[in-house]
Design goal:
about 290 residues; four-stranded antiparallel beta sheet; alpha/beta; about 25% strand; six-stranded mixed beta sheet
């Protein structure tokens, strides 16, 4: 049996390198993308302190294309594979099998190229320094990403105006949840990415703040800056309002994709998005 590391290395050592996108309108192309986790359990006071748990398939043979400038919603129950997919596209983890091409670059072999195109925002953000101001945090991460001081100053000022970051010189620990979310988006935009990966960005926000963030995503990030956005959410109304297309994942498999009308046809339902979602998930669970 191969170790988890050897499985990961198979992806690095095999597979074609593509430097040209097959479709100029598609910025992300996934083919049979698969991710299997091999968890280990730590047992103290045991002759065998590490015990291998059964493999956990997080994504299974996922085929998907995302068009330039699209807002793609990722829906699914907990454990469906949404966050795993975003982390793979953000080059944080390697796929086990299959291929992923981002703007013509192979995600595994040319990860540095992909990384320069992608910004990722998560709600469970713990990497900001709470004793530093918002501006100092952005300056630190800009230096970490290779921006020089003059470019950093200009970029932070642009983002301050675009995202209405009026409290940049206040300590991060004093920020509201909404302001922390905006700063996380600002950090993701420092290098002017063309793809934004958003993992439940409005989960901890009150309705007014959530509505403001949704408007910001559509009006500024998409319409003004031309970003392609992948949005993982449990909020079906949010997906309905924001997304051009919706992908439904269940147990790592794609069970529906397209507009709401496309999903209704797949589910053989004329109901609401909530009813269609439940129908698709229930049908896959019974298969």
């Amino acid at each position: 049996m191969r170790s988890p590391g050897s499985i990961e290395r198979l992806v690095v050592d095999a597979g074609p390198v593509r430097t040209q996108a097959s479709d100029s309108e598609s910025i992300i192309v996934l083919a049979n993308l698969t991710k299997i986790f091999h968890p280990l359990q730590l047992r103290l006071r045991s002759l065998r302190p590490l015990r291998r748990e059964p493999p956990v398939p997080a994504l299974r043979d996922l085929n998907l294309t995302v068009g330039r400038g699209d807002v793609l919603g990722l829906l699914g129950t907990n454990g469906a594979g949404k966050t795993t997919l975003l982390k793979i596209l953000g080059t944080l983890i390697l796929p086990t099998a299959g291929s992923a091409v981002v703007s013509g670059w192979d995600l595994v072999r040319e990860a540095d190229r992909v990384r320069s195109l992608v910004g990722m925002v998560t709600t469970d953000e713990r990497s900001f320094y709470w004793r530093l101001t918002g501006r100092q945090n952005l300056e630190f991460f800009a230096a970490f990403q290779g921006l020089d001081s003059s470019e950093t100053t200009a970029r932070i000022e642009d983002l301050r105006c675009q995202l209405e970051l009026e409290a940049l010189d206040r300590r991060f620990g004093l920020y509201s949840t909404g302001m922390r979310h905006r700063l996380a988006i600002a950090r993701a935009l420092l290098r002017r990415p063309v793809i934004l990966l958003l993992d439940e960005p409005t989960r901890s926000l009150d309705p007014i703040a959530a509505g403001g963030l949704r408007r910001l995503i559509r009006s500024m990030l998409v319409d003004e800056l031309g970003c392609t956005v992948l949005l993982a959410t449990h909020n079906l109304q949010e997906a309905h309002e924001l997304c051009d297309r919706i992908v439904v994942l269940h147990q790592g498999r794609l069970v529906g994709s397209g507009s709401i009308e496309d999903l209704r046809r797949t589910a053989h339902s004329r109901g609401s998005l909530s009813e269609v979602f439940e129908s698709l998930v229930r049908e896959q669970s019974c298969a």
